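User: Last request for today: this protein with NAP, please.
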Amino acid sequence: MASRNLARTLLRSIAPAARSALAKPAFALRVASSIRPAAFSPMQTRGIKTMDFGGTKETVYERSDMPLPKLQAYFKNDTLSVLGYGPQGRGQALNLRDNGINVIVGVRKDGRSWKKAISEGWVPGKTLFSIEEAADKGTYLLNLLSDAAQRDLWKTLSPYVTAGKTLYFSHGFAITYKDQTGVIPPKDVDVILCAPKGSGSTLRSLFVNGKGLNSSIAVFQDVTGKAKEKAIALGIAIGSGYLYETTFQKEVFSDLFGERGILMGAIYGMFRAQYDVLRENGHSPSEAFNETVEEATQSLIPLIGENGMDWMYANCSVTAQRGALDWHQKFYDAAMPVYKDLYKSVVTGAEVKRALDKNSQPDYRESLEVELKEISDSEIWRSGKTVRSLRPENVESDK
Ligand SMILES: NC(=O)c1ccc[n+]([C@@H]2O[C@H](COP(=O)([O-])OP(=O)(O)OC[C@H]3O[C@@H](n4cnc5c(N)ncnc54)[C@H](OP(=O)(O)O)[C@@H]3O)[C@@H](O)[C@H]2O)c1
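Assistant: Here's the final one, the structure of the complex with NAP:
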């Protein structure tokens, strides 16, 4: 009831732009099937600036700091070797290529990534090589292997990390948890990071559509005095929208914390708890799913993304507003000890140890499949499939 009122009030009060966004499928970001290098011109105005984030001043870097010709000139004598062609390797390599930067890809021969890279125009012997060959040719080594492979292949890769080269990561993982990964770069290379705040396919699709994902940048080792400048240039070259500064350690702590928290772990825990209480109290699966996931993802979360939670609280029905104001503190109090435990587990390295140990087990793929199947077989997500199939746009596309 409260949410029906809420939805009604919202539809009345929201701006036309938000209403039209509501009419579209949420997060409808298309991954481009083709690329348009010649026509592509993602660079736009605005420059380095200090912004006020709720009272704290931070420096941010935007695309206009590195217009395309400047970017191309910056890297004109370089070969950027993207090692790995998973979501990040693929997204970053394609964006670099579209930006006219000299980029090659290095992956293990005949693996899934090798085949995918060939299908997207990378040519063996010209722009596609083994990891060792690409590492040998590159002046910038973009280590975008999986985090486990960064540990496993460090001994293979490190002979190619030679004086004057720049070593780049998109996660502070390997460097911060060096006791577990063994990744200790030589002292004569710059070591930088640019971590897109989203998946590689989002990085790609936003770039193709003239937009940009936000990324954080950091410097671990600055031999040339230009490490930060390189991180900014590379951050823009891979297609980021704007860049904010962090450290390798803060990047990995916040990333591991966030994905275990609200982004994946906490949100699923909360979905499940709410759905199960509704089901235990006799609500149908369609009602439980609609009140829990569908309304959140289709209506409220896009609005929160667009306008903020403060706006959301100010623009809902009085009934919903009173309830949310009264209950959010209880959820905060319940979540706080869990979040504190989680942060500790990240900082001590326990999370990383578990991830690496699990990943190293020979039967991990099989046991993972079992865990994932349990989720997809659960009632909530089976209900979700039916609910999604009933969205008008899906019904129409079936015809
Ligand atoms: N995914 C994200 O949303 C995201 C966001 C920001 C930052 N990052 C960071 O970006 C980096 C890359 O992430 P990702 O998600 O793109 O990685 P991923 O999909 O897990 O793996 C990327 C590559 O690693 C290769 N690989 C894995 N094991 C290997 C092995 N034993 N030997 C040789 N190659 C191996 C894979 O090649 P094959 O196909 O041959 O197996 C693939 O090309 C990581 O540091 C990650 O933390 C990821």
